[in-house]
Design brief:
By secondary structure, the protein is α/β, with parallel strands linked by helices. It has ten helices and 14 strands. It folds into two domains: 125 residues, ATPase, nucleotide binding domain (Nucleotidyltransferase, domain 5, 2-Layer Sandwich), CATH 3.30.420; 154 residues, ATPase, nucleotide binding domain (Nucleotidyltransferase, domain 5, 2-Layer Sandwich), CATH 3.30.420. The longest helix is centred in the C-terminal third of the chain and has 25 residues.
């Protein structure tokens, strides 16, 4: 059985796993990120890889796949820019090879890595257009068309930057519908400082009217952003990941109800092809590992 290591690097945690060529997650470990400086952050990456390798031989590993937030230089193995990590122009590929040996290393944006795992799991036909959307501390998407990533000039898929209409006017989707945006909206609407995103969703589930209006507003914003994808790409399938929607799956039906209002009948085929990730928090690790075996 061929095996690879997949690494999913984030601002709060780093996960690593051993992945089979068929996409099976054989082992998984997780450590906290340390974004205090670039070397401390890299030490945590080394730590989680060493943990996941315990009981295994690195000689059995075909290579390493790494998902990094923000902009990456895939050809030269460099983490170019991230909002929440101290790795501007960090040579992640060279450093990993120095640490673990000259194995093939594939790096890409973390959302692209997760999208690849979801694309494989969804068994999308080769000529179809697939979109993966993540709603977490940020909002982004990745597009796979005809079996290849659509990258544009290198920054395609930044759904969270699209302006949508809110009560305050035009605002970027990420600022008013990602996790921190939900919390900020709740504090403003309810005039409470001690409230979290988790509290908002719990209040909605328990039927509190004040939380109902907040979730109604948030899902309306998300529907606006997703309608831009529906119009521009008319995708065959769309899968959602990220902690906000994976932990609160009821959101999808609310989003679909509002999206349907915008869509003309010829666009509504998408509603039946929208689903929540079955891989949940593991999609980044699995996708990074699978990219060692298949590069697109």
């Amino acid at each position: 059985m061929k095996k690879a290591i997949g690494i999913d690097i984030g601002g709060t945690k780093i996960a690593a796993g051993i992945i089979s060529e068929s996409g099976e997650l054989l082992n998984r470990k997780e450590v906290k990120s340390d974004p205090s400086d670039r070397e401390s952050m890299f030490e945590q990456v080394v730590k989680v890889v060493e943990q996941v390798l315990e009981g295994s031989s690195f000689s059995e590993i075909e290579g390493i796949g790494v998902g990094v937030p923000g902009k990456v230089d895939r050809e030269n193995g460099i983490a170019v820019f991230q909002n929440n990590l101290p790795w501007q122009q960090f040579p992640i590929t060279a450093r990993l090879q120095e640490q673990f040996g000259a194995k093939p290393i594939t790096i890409d944006n973390d959302v692209y890595m997760a999208a690849f795992a979801e694309w494989k799991a969804a068994r999308v036909k080769g000529n179809e257009t697939f979109v993966y959307v993540t709603v977490s501390t940020g909002i982004s998407c990745s597009i796979i068309h005809n079996g290849s990533f659509f990258r544009g000039a290198g920054f395609a898929g930044e759904l969270g930057l699209i302006p949508v209409l809110s009560k305050q006017g035009n605002e970027r989707l990420e600022f008013i519908a990602a996790g921190p945006g939900v919390e900020k909206l709740a504090k403003k609407e309810l005039h409470e400082e001690q409230i979290s995103t988790k509290d908002v969703f719990a209040g909605f589930i328990h039927g509190d009217p004040s939380y109902q209006s907040i979730i109604n507003e948030v899902t309306g914003h998300l529907a606006q952003g997703l309608y831009s994808i529906s119009c521009l790409l008319d995708p065959h399938k769309m899968v959602f990941g990220g902690s906000v929607i994976v932990n609160n799956p009821f959101l999808l039906e609310l989003i679909k109800e509002k999206l349907k209002i915008y869509q003309i009948p010829e666009q509504q085929h998408l509603l039946d092809q929208m689903s929540i990730s079955s891989l949940a928090q593991n999609n980044g690790v699995v996708g990074a590992g699978l990219r060692v075996f298949e590069r697109i």
